[in-house]
Structures are given as C-alpha cells and as structure tokens.
Design a protein that fits this description.
With 133 residues, this protein is mainly β. It has one domain. It contains 1 helix and 8 strands. Strands 1, 2, 3, 4, 5, 6, 7 and 8 form an 8-stranded antiparallel sheet that branches.
C-alpha cells in the first residue's frame, strides 16, 4: 500500500496516511518504525512558506512510498527485512528543516534528495540503508 509518512510532533511518533484504497487520505496508523520502498521525499512549498511566515509548525513534509514493514505504537519486536536494528554506519541519514532547506537533504553534505529505493524511519530519524539483507 502506498502511504505518506510524517513526523507527528504531538505524539512523538510517525503518522501514516493512506494514498490509495478506501482509506485514501486518512491516517491509518501511528508507528515508531516504518520501512518504505520506492521512497519519495516531498515538501509542500506552500506549507513551508506558511511555516516561514507564521513561525509555527504544520504538516507539509512527507516521505511517500510502499510499506515494507511497520511496528505500530505499543507493539514489540521487529520483523524488518532491512538493516534497521544495528548502528547506522551502514546508512545515509536524510533530514529536513524548513528554516534551512526547501527540500529533504542528505545530512552529510546537504544536497537535496528526491527519491531512494528504501527509507527507514525510526527514533533515530530517516535513513537510507546501503544494503538490503
């Protein structure tokens, strides 16, 4: 299922919004960890402009992709087929800050990113794994 995922600052988790099917447009889950395939990094420029103008946060940046695996709030254990539990030396970190960037960027060099094969979103942030197990 194709979804859009965003950081929910009020609940300190990720919110997952369906982008297809009967639940399209609705938040279908809140999770601590999610792995997406064919990830696209999306920033609504109008939403970003509103943040800059009003100096208040709003939901305007997403990672969109197909769910590979997810651990919802309150569940324990991991069934991720990707390299997600080990330290992230084997990944590239992605970040977004509306006050500094107009798009998601690679944290190490601040170059923009639009797409990746996989994205791992968890309490350590957003990471692109180098290798898939």
């Amino acid at each position: 299922m194709r979804v859009r995922v965003y950081k929910n600052l009020h609940k300190n988790c990720y919110s997952v919004r369906a982008m297809e099917g009967s639940m399209k447009g609705l938040v279908i889950a809140h999770c601590d960890n999610i792995v997406l395939k064919d990830a696209k990094y999306i920033v609504s420029q109008k939403g970003r402009e509103r943040v800059l103008r009003e100096r208040t946060k709003n939901v305007h940046a997403f990672v969109e992709g197909h769910i590979v695996s997810m651990v919802t709030i309150g569940k324990s254990g991991f069934d991720f087929p990707l390299h997600t539990q080990l330290p992230f030396e084997d990944s590239i970190e992605v970040t977004y800050n509306p006050y500094k960037f107009s798009s998601f960027v690679y944290k190490r060099n601040q170059n923009p990113i639009e797409h990746s094969n996989y994205a791992v979103l968890n309490d350590k942030g957003i990471h692109i794994p180098y290798r898939v197990l």
